[in-house]
Specification:
Strand content: 15-25%
Distance between the termini: 44 Å
CATH architecture: 3-Layer(aba) Sandwich
Largest sheet: 8 strands, mixed
Shape: globular
Length: about 300
């Protein structure tokens, strides 16, 4: 089978988005994943096939695995209460960092992975990116299963059928939708497609409560209370939060926003200017951002 390159190596940005779109898990227009040979597959519905098994899969690159220490995928998925036989929507999966864990695990346990991509109508490049993502996973159905696809975007039609999925997951995307002025639409769409009792899991860069929230989120950071308010307005009940992805060393006040930190590690603005005294190593030492991990539920009644 083919190895799917993770999103940590993606570098393309949409000029319209002043947030996490240059090297992102879920950028607005990521570069196509590269492919190299790998050696193992995940047999469908294999007994005892765990998230840890997927985490160790040879289709994941060394670069992807290096980020596990920051992103805590097993603990995050378990906190959201996802089951292996669930139907799970990942919103804007980018180059597939989480896809490469979720999809084989769901496939091996009788679940269904649904990728909600941005609209191919954004640009010719966007359409190419989506087709590349689809082709990479379609080439390996024995490992990843047969994906379902829907579209989520600011101007797109409704995403999927009402009351049709068990979980909707988004990883470090909300600031993009705030920039595009359709964050409220996302929460409404997630609520609509979830079954009663279904889970919305949100991981996002966390802005300290003492800092002022710009509704366009130009730094990539978002108030936790702001996210909770958007979810409540759509009808969700707040189930709980976790500090799994917290990083107390992140002060969220960096020269280039969250993109100053790994994995982007930006050192200059778009005009090539670097602030005087800028110390790139100090930001590498911080590591990846401080992130909130929030679980919301669509009421059963």
């Amino acid at each position: 089978m083919k190895r799917i390159l993770g999103a940590s190596l993606l570098t393309l940005a949409l000029a319209a988005c002043g947030n996490e779109t240059e090297v992102s898990d879920t950028p607005s227009a990521p570069q196509p994943p590269a492919e190299t040979a790998a050696t193992e597959t995940a047999p469908a519905e294999e007994a005892g096939y765990s998230l840890e098994t997927a985490l160790a899969g040879s289709w994941r690159t060394d670069e992807e695995k290096a980020r596990d220490a920051y992103r805590h995928p097993v603990e995050t998925i378990e906190f959201f209460g996802i089951e292996g036989d669930d139907t799970v929507v990942e919103i804007w999966p980018g180059g597939g960092w989480y896809t490469n864990i979720l999809a084989p695990w769901l496939h091996a346990n009788g679940g269904q992975f649904v990728a909600a991509t941005f609209s191919p109508d954004r640009s010719e490049r966007s359409a190419e990116v989506i087709e590349t993502y689809k082709a990479n996973y379609a080439a390996n159905p024995e490992t990843f299963g047969e994906f379902q696809y829907v579209i989520y975007d600011g101007d797109a039609d409704p995403m999927g059928e009402p009351d049709s999925v068990d979980a909707v997951l988004t990883f470090r995307n909300l600031h993009n939708w705030m920039s595009g002025d359709h964050a409220d639409k996302f929460f409404n769409e997630a609520y609509r497609v979830l079954k009663p009792g279904g889970v919305l899991g949100v991981v996002e860069h966390r802005l300290p409560s003492s800092a002022e929230q710009d509704t366009a989120a130009p730094t990539g950071y978002v108030h936790e209370d702001y996210v909770k308010a958007l979810a409540a307005a759509a009808g969700f009940e707040f189930e709980g939060s976790s500090e799994i992805n917290a990083n107390p060393a992140d002060t969220a006040d960096h020269p280039f926003g969250v993109w100053t930190l790994p994995p982007v590690s930006r050192t200059a603005d778009r005009d090539g200017n670097t602030p005087e005294g800028f110390d790139a190593d100090s930001y590498l030492a911080i590591g990846e951002s401080d992130r909130m991990t929030l679980k919301f539920v669509k009421p059963a009644q």
